[in-house]
Amino acid sequence: MAQVLYSVQMSLDGYIAGPGGDMSWLAPHLGPNPTADALVDRIGAMLVGRRTFGGDDPNKGTDKEGAMSGAWEGPQFVLTHEPPRDPVPGVTFVTGLREGVEAAKKAAGERYVNLLGADVARQALAAGLVDEILTFVSPVLLGDGTRLFAQPGGAEIQLERIVQADHDPVAGLWYRVVKP
């Protein structure tokens, strides 16, 4: 059965997006990454937050605009309280977290369901639905923006290291979520 993975790239000070969801900080930190490259074929479906789905392209305004799309293709599920009226090809909009996770797992088969979006990941972690977390740490300090994980007053979540990889200048940290 599919495992649920939260994979993300963040700044050293823990931000996955800059102020206002700006992703332009990420472009200089993308490059050859054997761990990320190998993961692409292991993803069977995506569960994406609404803001992330409609979000910023880190290569916007450059000759690489749109380069983030195309590396992975497959079923996408977008978690939102307000699905659009017009369908989006290849995208299923879901209104409930558990419904979205189950639909994505079914679509993923034996491969990963990859979570995209800090709020979706926070909700899924709080609900005990995340199996693994893969974080690539970039050598930059953003100072403000969207945190990797923020849950004021939330419970501590224990992690067990699976892999630690160095893909200069980015470090990869892959953990299993320890379930009670």
Structural features, described:
The chain is of the alpha/beta class. Helices cover 18% and strands 32% of the residues. It contains four helices and ten strands; from the N terminus they run ββαβαββαβαββββ. It has helices at 34-40, 50-53, 97-108, 118-126, and strands at residues 4-11, 15-17, 43-49, 76-79, 91-94, 112-116, 132-138, 146-147, 159-167, 170-177. The protein has an eight-stranded mixed sheet with strand order 5-4-3-6-1-7-10-9, sandwiched between helices. Strand 9 (159-167) and strand 10 form a beta hairpin. The longest helix is centred in the middle third of the chain and has 12 residues, at 97-108. The protein is globular, with a radius of gyration of 16 Å. The two termini are 20 Å apart. The model is unreliable at 64-69 (pLDDT under 50).
Major sheet: order of its strands? 5-4-3-6-1-7-10-9
Number of strands: 10
* Radius of gyration over all CA atoms, rounded: 16 Å
The termini sit apart by: 20 Å
Strand percentage lies at 25-35%
Helix content estimate: 10-25%
> Quick one: biggest sheet?
8 strands, mixed
General shape: globular
Order of helices and strands: EEHEHEEHEHEEEE
Spans with pLDDT under 50 lasting ≥5 residues? 64-69
Mean pLDDT: 88
Instruction: Please give the count of helices.
Output: 4
Chain oligomer state: single chain
The secondary-structure class comes to alpha/beta
